[in-house]
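pipeline stage [seq->struct] | target=Fatty-acyl-CoA synthase | organism=Amycolatopsis taiwanensis | residues=482
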Amino acid sequence: MFPALISRQPLNTAKTALRFGELALDYTELSTVAGTLARELRASAPPRVAVWATPTLYTSVAVVGALLAGVPAVPVNPKIGERELAHIVSDSTPSLVLAEPGAVLPSALAALPRKDIELTGTPGELPPEPGPETPALIVYTSGTTGPPKGVVVPRRAIASTLDALEDAWQWTADDVLVHALPLFHVHGLILGILGPLRRGGSVRHLGRFSTEAAAKELASDATMMFGVPTMYHRIAGEVGEDPELAKAFGRARLLVSGSAALPVHDHQRITAATGQQVVERYGMTETLMNTSVRADGERKPGTVGVPLRGVELRLVDEAGDVVEAAETVGEIQVRGPNLFTEYLNRPDATAEVFTGGWFRTGDMAVRDTDGYLRIVGRKATDLIKSGGYKIGAGEIENALLEHPGVAEVAVTAEEDPDLGERIVAWIVPVEAAPDEQELIDHVARLLTPHKRPRVVRFLDALPRNEMGKVLKRALPQPRETS
């Protein structure tokens, strides 16, 4: 999986591979520690292992060891609820749980045999490399439309995505990545830990994000940062007031945002203070990465760039026809070596999301004349049909964020007897709530009148998951706000 490990290149370097606070392993040490775990797993031959995925060095070693052993790993969110955990354990049936020493596990995992991860080991021969279709990870979806589904990610999907990002981001062994992302998901684990290891680079994991901690690493030897919009929103608010912070972030070779859309206003504030233009990319658990703004390409705030090498992408309208015209909304469909194999134990759900070999993402987008993709929302929640128009919620959200009185926003739809659906804006104000009509007129002026909100509601905060995505289904129902 990684050039310095699975390809069996000599490990005679003391280069740091992973660092979490005071704990660190160089490549020789990582090979020894993870290799020891891999040999132990191969000897016991568990069909699957659960990993209690705390943001620690122990989690990284557990996943690398499982990958070396060819044993599928199921990363488990340490903040998961009892019901979801019970479902994941019964669905994936791990025979062993890997955890950091001293971690207190919930009952569903505590009932399984447990192996504590050690940061010591014995040098030895690594297990033989499994085939490219061998399951590497089983990553569970967030379960917004039902019980979480186990996405079976094969080794070739991880390798193809990380190698395509090497091309798009000019990612090399000289890069040092800083991030503070959780390690139970694609962004933090596959991109943020396995990505640098595949390149032979280094990771500096902060444990908990702060603008100051990230800036300290970037002012030292870090060259790249991965983050989610909530992190970049904090950065945008601080770098304009602190020249030293701005200077540190200005030193980065690449700042990458993902997991949700980064508002254009935050792009602009970061660029104004640091000179940096944040790169956005687009992916899913089922597809890993599909598109990205290239390091050597034009940066267009609000877009997620162009398809990665090896990824085929098309937009399809409601009739199933391929959308050819620029700036026309269609559902994103992809195919390529980056795709998952199946939903674990769910052949029905797997069949439902494929059409002629194309994976139907459920995400809606438009493409500009340069081929750059702009996500306008989820088909189920973010495509609004109002007055005969198809409107993407994301476009309205970006417009509202340009208003100085708006800190956060989510746009949804409600049934309307005349329009079919009316646009509803959920606003977290900066201080006092702005005038509703002023916000409505603001959108009508920036976009077009039919895209203006018909209803404005104010909240203290938007419901979000740990990756920073707004949980629109968790917003109050109309009767709760009357």
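stage status: PASS
auto-comment: The chain has a mean pLDDT of 90. The chain has 14 helices and 26 strands.
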